Amino acid sequence: MTPSLLRACASAVVLTCALPCQADSSVTVYGVLDSGLEVSRSGNGTVKREVSGGAMGSRFGLRGAEDLGGGLSAVFRLEQGLNLDDGTLGQGARGWGREASVGLSSKALGTVQLGRLPTPYYAMSSYIDAFNWMGAGGLPALTRSGAAVRQVLPNLINAREDNAVGYVSPSLGGAELRAMVAAGEGSTSIGRAYGLSGRYLGGPVDVVAAYTRQDGAGDGSGSVSSFLAGGSFDFGMAKLFAGISDERNSCTTCTGALARSSGVAGTNASAFRVYNVGARVPFGAMTAIVQLARVDDRSVYAVDPGSRDATWATIGAEYAFSKRTLIYSALGTIGNKNGSQYALGSGTAQQPAGVVAAGNPRATTATIGIRHAF
């Protein structure tokens, strides 16, 4: 077969595949590409790395809807996480790790979806965070980095559930309700999961609250339960944020992001509460950001180590070249004492294990990156 014939056949295949897509305008291709450079110090010298997801997780997605008449539509979403620094898939190399769902949506009654879904707790958490998860100030950036990485806010990082049924209400006067239940389906580490959230958005006011619970496998193996509350008020010249995130982890079978912090024993729980206040101040295309958080370690340790509470402070900025492209930067720092081992990553790009040296060093991280949405 000649090269010209090969090109002709390829063009015919592409045209044949494209015609149905052009006829169905309800299918949308979208994505986010986010990469940054990070410099951090946590007592083991200066560590430099390139990160993916320093402001928002990189992704590629397809979403669509079919009008079934009478205000009812069939809806679907397939969303794949990407690691731009090495070109691999995110969420443990899943094909559609961020979301894989199908459902029905009614303008009057709301939307029901089945599949792998984001939790209501995760969906609300960015609304209380002045950094909107960006850089060393975003709430997902905080971990404890000892021999293994242990989460301060595990249900925030365990952001999605398999085997889930989710519901999103229509907006009623600015109020929206979300609910979800997921089955463990024989997992040896986790059991059923539940979630509920509410949001009110009206004028300058944005208020949210959410609760989620992940049970361990079988009866008597504990759970990871979490709640958050807070929001923001937009004064025009500045947008102020305040929030509280509380997570208690007594799960003895949970692994990965849901594993308990080290040092607890038996049925004791690792438990943390994070209070945060912050502000976003726009100056034309640039927005200055500041946030102060207090980490309250309420864990029940087998041997009392003393107070491991800490103060976490971050400054940062974003500059929007357009509605789709911006650059961002952040500088965050947190203190350590009594073996707390707090470390700061950049957004969803957390620090690996073993970055905090002995002697309770201060952990400091600086990031600069670029995000493009399409």
> How widely separated are the two ends?
38 Å
User: So, the CATH homologous superfamily?
Assistant: Porin
* Rg for CA atoms: 22 Å
Biggest sheet, spatial arrangement of strands:
1-3-4-6-7-10-11-12-13-14-15-16-17-18-19-21
Helix content: under 10%
Number of domains: 1
Low-confidence stretches: 1-24
Q: What name does CATH use for the topology?
A: Porin
Instruction: Tell me, rounded to a whole number, the average pLDDT.
Output: 93
Structural class comes to mainly beta
**CATH class, anyone?**
Mainly Beta
Large-scale geometry: globular
Strand content: over 45%
Provide a compact summary of the structure.
The chain is mainly beta and 374 residues long.
Describe this structure in words.
The protein has one domain (37-49, 110-373): Porin, CATH 2.40.160.10. Strand 10 and strand 11 (175-182) form a beta hairpin. It is built from 3 helices and 21 strands. It is mainly β. A 16-stranded antiparallel beta barrel has the order 1-3-4-6-7-10-11-12-13-14-15-16-17-18-19-21. A 3-stranded antiparallel beta sheet has the order 9-8-20, with no helix packed on it. The longest helix has 21 residues, at 3-23. Mean pLDDT is 93; it is low at 1-24.
